[in-house]
Amino acid sequence: MKEKKTTGKNFLVQGTILAAASIIAKIIGLIYRIPLNNILGSEGISYYGTSNEIYAILLMISCFNLPLAVSKLVSERVHRGEYRNAHRVFLCAVRFALVVGGGLALFTYIFAGVITKYLMSFELAVYSLRVLAPAIFISAIIGTFRGYFQGYSTMVPTAVSQVIEQIVNAVVTLVCADIMFSYGASLAEKEGNASLGPAWGAAGGTFGTVASITVALLFMMFVYTAQKKTLQRNMRRDRNTRPESERLIYHQLVMTILPVILSTVIYNISNVADQGIFNKVLQGQGYTAAQYGSIWGIYSGQFRVLMNVPLALASCMAPSIVPSLTAAMANRNRSEARAKIRISIRFTMLLTIPCAAGMAALARPIITMLFSNETGVPLSVGILQTGSLMIILYALSTLTTGILQGLGQLKQPLINCSISLVIHFILLYFLLTVANLNIYAVVYANIIFALIVCILNAVVIRRFIHYKQEWYKTFAVPAIASVIMAAAVYIVYSALNLFAGNTVSTILSIIVGVIVYGIGLVSFRGITIEEIATFPKGHMIIKLLRRLGLAR
Questions:
Q1: Single pTM value for the model
Q2: Which residues, in sequence order, are CB contacts of 478 under 8 Å at separation 6+?
Q3: Per-residue pLDDT tens for 230-240?
Q4: What is the distance, to the nearest Å, from the Cα of residue 500 to the centroid of all Cα atoms in its chain?
C-alpha cells in the first residue's frame, strides 16, 4: 500500500470506486428485499426495519464514525511521512473499538426489551434487536480496518468488503428468515399470537447482518495481513524518531470522533424518533400495532430501501473527500480545497438529481416490478413520488457534512443538525396531529430537515473557506436535463407497456432515460469534454460521445 498523491482526480476515482461498490451492495440489498418482503409481509418487515433502525443508531454511537476518524488521523500522519505513528493510530483505534463496541453490544442485548417496548411501542421487535447485538461489536472492529486503508487514500478494500458483506447478507437473511418464520408460526399456534411468526422471521433475517459482517471482517484482516510487508517497508522509511504517546492518540481519537458521532447521531436519529412519534400518535388515533406497523413497513421497507441506492453516492463521496481535504488544509492550500469541494458537489448532483426525477416518473412501474405481491402499492407509489426530493437533499446534506468534517469544522455539523432536528420534530408533530397527514407527515418533515441542514452547511462552508458554489452546471442543467428525461421515460414506458409488460418496459425506459439525460447534459453544456476526461473511464465516454456526434 503506497502513499498516493491527493489529486482531485484520485479522490474522485476513489470515491467512485466506493460509490460503485456501495451501489452494487444496495442493488443486492434491494433485490433480496423483494423475497424478504414476501416471506415476512408488511408486519414482519416493520419488525425487521425497527430493529435495524435502532441498531443503526447504536452503531453510530459506538463505531459508525470510526472509519472517518481513523482515516483523518492516519491521513494527517501519512501526509507528514510518519508511518509508524499512523500505524499506532490504527492499533489504538482497534483497542478503542474492542472496549466501546463490546460494551454497547452487551448493553443492547440486555436492554433490548426496554428499548423496543417503551421507546418504540413495538415490543416484538425485541427478538431481532437481540440477534443484532453482536454485530455492533464486530462492526466496531471492521471500522478501524476500513479507516486505516482510507487514510492511505485507497477505498478498494472497503469497497470489496462491502460487496462481499452484502452477498453473504442476502443469502443468509433469506434462508434464516424463512426458517425462523416457520418456527414463529408454530409458536403462534400454541400461544394464540399471530404476530410471533413475523417477529421471529424478522429475527432470522437480522442474523444475516451478523454473519455478513463477520465474513467482511475476516476479509479485511486478510487484506491487512497481505499488505503487512508493504506497511513495514513504509515504516522503515519513516524518518520520525519520536513515537506519539498512546494517551495523546486516544485523546485525539476521542476529540475527533465525539463531535462526529454526536452530529451523525442527531442527523440519523430522526429515523428512529420519527417511528416512535409516528407509532405513539397513530396509537392515540385508534390504529392497532399491526396497522401502523404495516404502514411504517411500507415506508421503511420499500421507499427508504429505494432511496438508499442513489444516496450511496453521497455516502461514499463524503468519506473519500475527508482525507483529501485534510491534506489540502494541512498544506494551507485553500484553492485546492475549494476545487475538491466543487467537483464533489457537482459529481453528486449530476447523479442524484436524475435518480430522483426518474424515480418520481416511474414510481408505479418500479414499485410494481419490485414489490408486486405487496398490498400497499398505491401508498408506496405516493410516498416515492412525494419523497423523491429527499434523495437530492439528503445527498447534498450528507456530502456537505463530510466536507465540513474534512475542513476540520467538526462541531459545526452538530450545531446545524441540532437546529434542523428541533424544527423537524415540531413540524412532524404538527403534520401528524393537526394536518393528519399520516405517513406523508414523515416524508414532508424529513424534506424540511435535510433542506435546513443543506442551507446551514452551505453558509458555514462559504464563511470558513470563502467558497461559492457554481449553480448553472451543478444544479440548473442537471435539473433541466432530468425533467426532459423524466418526460421521455414516462412516454417510452407508456408506449412499451401496451405490449411488452411492466418489467421489460420499466428496464428499457430506464436505459432510454440514461441516454436522454447524458445527451441533455452535453447539449446544454452542463459538462465539458475536459471535465469528462477527469472522470473514471472518462476517455471511453468521450470516444462514445464523438461517435454519436455530440462532441468534437
A1: 0.70
A2: 349, 350, 353, 354, 521, 526
A3: 878 878 777 77
A4: 34
